[in-house]
Write a structure and sequence with these properties.
The chain contains 23 helices and seven strands. It is an alpha/beta fold and about 475 residues long. Strand 6 and strand 7 form a beta hairpin.
Length: about 475
């Protein structure tokens, strides 16, 4: 921090606290330079679920936006870029964005860049030509070039994958590991959730804490999951055996998640079904979901014409049914799986599980888009805003129903056919889809004359006998 142009790389195992370390660094920098307008603190949180919206182009645009947000007036290069592309509603080329970043960065006395979870940033370019570098490679290359030109300070976190370790081999590094005292405080605070025979036995509590500290391998998350798994034991004997068998090493998370899934299956049927449906959505949705989106999704009945709000489940009941696999960000109101490793666990399940999950999600999306509230078709901008606000799943369903239908192989299902053969429902969905791409579309999007469901079928590559 004291010396310009320095890099600090912080690798760590999953759940060790890397994101907390990054957030703490950002907060410390912002507080330290709060009253200094000549210092910029910009950052990126890479997210496994946001790969589509976290391409190199997206990430550079985010950095540029943060840089010029701190300026009293916009530089001429930003004005020129805006004028060049706004009218045509096209995005600037990535090299133009990078050029602007360099131009704006030199106007500051200091620039700090923090990037969390580099391993969750895709490193595929989407171009088969090998001369095109992947998103992560391009991002790091440009950050290092910016650092050389502007003496930027760079802080990054990541899982210790070989390629990323190689990239930072010449830079100082500090491994992120859970602090044992912090873990002990957590265990003490949550020991009351254990069975009565544990609460009444200080000796068992001591053994639990020692066993978890030995098995957690520097991961705070693993310690919390171990405590949850031990809380299901019914006697001191079975608990001590489970404590001795706590998984460690590279397969620890897989074994823990398998244990949690067994715990979910052992619940009453209603809770089990709720958890399985919720986990399908959280694991296989194409982007992170807001709490209200998931609540609407779980309340959909395939043969209904409207959403029964009485069937909306409280978020605490959803989280409870998922037995530790789901968490809510209270600030952003998003709900997600507990860690990147959980997404990897579900991605690694047999293909038929993957297909069934997408079939379920695709049918729910199609059923939602078929509700009578959408059967009036296209609407005015003011009504469209109300449509989005009142129907929380509308944007997601409009945008992704087709992808789930493809992956779930349900093109010929009655639910999907009922939707695609309803011209007005399709019209409303298309408007929602276009509006979700750009905010401006809510105001300017209009349908061509003679638009029919067949056009939608052709666009999405769906082929139904009724159109032949």
């Amino acid at each position: 921090m004291a010396e310009e142009g320095r890099t600090l790389f912080c690798p760590g195992t999953p759940g060790a606290g890397k994101t907390i370390a990054a957030a703490s660094a950002i907060e410390e920098l912002k507080n330290r330079y709060r009253n200094d307008a000549t210092v910029a603190v910009i950052y990126l949180y890479c997210n496994y679920q946001r790969k589509e919206s976290q391409t190199a182009q997206d990430l550079f645009e985010s950095l540029l936006r943060q840089l010029f947000d701190g300026l009293p007036t916009l530089p001429g290069s930003i004005h020129a870029l805006y004028e060049r592309y706004y009218q045509g509603q096209f995005r600037p080329r990535i090299d133009e964005v990078i050029h602007c970043i360099h131009e704006v960065a030199v106007t500051y006395s200091r620039v700090f860049i923090v990037i969390d979870a580099l391993d969750e940033c895709s490193d595929t370019s989407g171009n088969e030509c090998k001369k095109h570098s992947g998103d992560r490679t391009r991002l790091l290359s440009e950050v290092f070039q910016l650092q050389a030109q502007c003496l930027v300070n760079f802080f990054a976190t990541s899982r210790p994958t070989p390629d990323i370790l190689e990239t930072f081999v010449q830079y100082p590094s500090f491994e992120v590991r859970a602090n044992e005292q912090d873990v002990l405080k957590y265990l003490d605070a949550h020991m009351s959730e254990s069975p009565v025979f544990v609460i009444q036995s200080p000796e068992l509590q001591h053994q639990i804490k020692d066993g978890i500290l030995q098995a957690m391998d520097g991961s705070f998350l693993l310690a919390t999951l171990h405590l949850k798994s031990l809380a299901t034991q019914q006697s001191p004997e079975t608990l001590l055996q489970a404590l001795a068998d706590l998984p460690t090493g590279s397969q620890a998370y897989t074994q823990v998640y398998e244990g949690l899934m067994q715990r979910i299956q052992a619940q009453p049927m209603g809770q089990t079904n709720l958890a399985i449906d919720a986990l399908h959505w959280l694991a296989y949705a194409r982007r992170p979901l807001k709490v209200k989106e998931l609540q609407h999704a779980l309340a959909v009945e395939l043969n209904s014409t409207e959403l029964d709000h009485v069937k909306i489940t409280a978020v605490k009941d959803i989280v409870s049914a998922c037995c530790g696999l789901a968490v809510v960000d209270e600030k952003s109101k998003f709900i997600r799986l507990v860690n990147h490793t959980a997404y990897e666990y579900f991605d690694g399940l047999p293909y038929h599980r993957f297909e069934l999950a997408h079939a379920y999600i695709g049918k729910v999306c199609a059923a939602y888009l078929s509700f009578k509230v959408f059967l009036s078709g296209e609407c005015y901008a003011s009504q469209l805003c109300e449509r989005f606000q009142s129907n929380s799943l509308f944007e997601y369903a409009s945008h992704y129903w087709d992808e789930h239908a493809r992956r779930g192989c349900i093109r010929d299902s009655k639910t999907v056919k009922d939707f695609t053969e309803s011209a007005k429902a399709v019209e409303a969905s298309c408007q929602g889809f276009c509006a979700s791409l750009h905010d401006d579309s809510r105001l300017i999007f209009r349908f061509p004359d003679n638009f029919t469901p067949l056009h939608l079928s052709a666009y999405y590559g769906l082929s139904f006998e009724s159109y032949s």
